[in-house]
Write a structure and sequence with these properties.
This protein is α/β, with parallel strands linked by helices and 434 residues long. It contains 14 helices and 15 strands. The longest helix is centred in the middle third of the chain and has 39 residues. Bound molecules: guanosine-5'-triphosphate (GTP) and magnesium ion. The site of magnesium ion has 5 residues, from helix 8. It is found in: Cytoplasm.
Amino acid sequence: MQDTTIQPIPTIIAGLDRNQDDFDYTMTELGELVQAAGMTVAASVTQRADHADPATYFGKGKVEEMAAQARAADVPLIVVNSDLTPSQTRNLEKITKLSVMDRTELILRIFSSRARTREAKLQVAIAQEEYALPRVHPSANPLDQQGGGRGASGGGATANRGAGETQLELDKRVIRKRITHMRAELKEIMRAQATRRDRRIHQALPSVALVGYTNAGKSTMMNGMLAQYGVTDKQVEVKNQLFATLDTSVRQLQLPNHRHFLLSDTVGFVSHLPHHLVESFKATLAEARDADLLIQVVDFADPHYRQMMATTEETLAAIGVKDVPMLTVYNKADLRAGVNFPEREGMTMTLSAQDPASITLLGQTLDELLYKDYVRTSLLVPFTQGEIVNYLRDNAEVVSEHYTDDGTAITAVLSPIDRGRFARFQQAQVPSTK
Ligand SMILES: Nc1nc2c(ncn2[C@@H]2O[C@H](COP(=O)(O)OP(=O)(O)OP(=O)(O)O)[C@@H](O)[C@H]2O)c(=O)[nH]1
Ligand SMILES: [Mg+2]
């Protein structure tokens, strides 16, 4: 779908190299983020320094140089590879007479252009307004005049820049009010979802969440699993772009032995994910927090995959995901020469989400990990309780079944919950060989 709110603006990307280990990686990533926002990179500028200049972030000479370079190439926007204080942004814009965008604002724009559901839109809009609040200030911004300015709702707050302090205070109050309203609406949506989640917990289905860096292949893996094990074949969207998925999708899957589980596909992560976004996406990521098992999908074909894994783990910690067992899946192995796949070693797998044999091995692995507490159990179910036999046929791996004078003798591999539920019919217990 064509996004009309974002113009293909050429940009200069700029970063301060303070000898951080991951500096080159974050610059590469910034370029990709700029493209994901529908803009292009005309040039990349870096400056080596020990500290950022408190007033202008970059040194004065560098700022002048960037401004000249931008003017020569007709570039209206500088995107900075870090977060700027509101006054640094203002000062840079004043000196360069260009628009200046920091990393957070860029990521917020991408999320905003991708959000489709009401829930995602609210979460992004709240984060945008939180970002805008300390930045409401009278200053000229060429982007505002193009209708692409700051502020989540198309510049309601920034449109009145320059009208004096009272107007500023008024603008801030309006933003705060909008945030309050949006939070209330989001809470209502999330409450409905939590109820649905509770209901699923009552069904006692184990749940698995796909997590990881953006573009690692989470949605592709979801679709591969759906094609082989889906109860319905409702595929999710896959795109070769950053942040293709913003909403959590949950699907019910059924393994060959009739065991069901839930698989969810979630929003991808990126380094230095804006704090406000992490906060507002916490609710969406509840699926990951409440999961019985996480599958961390890693883009094994990307040279920076280790940094991406570190970022994923940091972000999971930031949203309060802890103590959930994690299966690490090195994906896109097909793009790596000399790597054998599919392979599994304990809690690590190497595979390709596009390869059916890989998906089969993943299914077998999940079966083992999710169902290790399952026990082969023999029940004698009276003929008057035929619905229990039906339940077992649909929801458990039935090993044998025959009729006796007293009812149906059925042996099935049962979860701890089902064992408790049907304890009164229990005959004997044999540990599962699985
Ligand atoms: N060659 C190859 N490409 C893959 C594989 N898995 C995914 N891809 C491609 O990688 C790109 C991103 O895949 P997605 O499944 O959308 O990634 P994602 O992790 O859901 O990304 P976000 O939703 O943006 O976080 C798409 O172009 C996929 O076709 C794989 O195993 N091999
Ligand atoms: Mg996705």
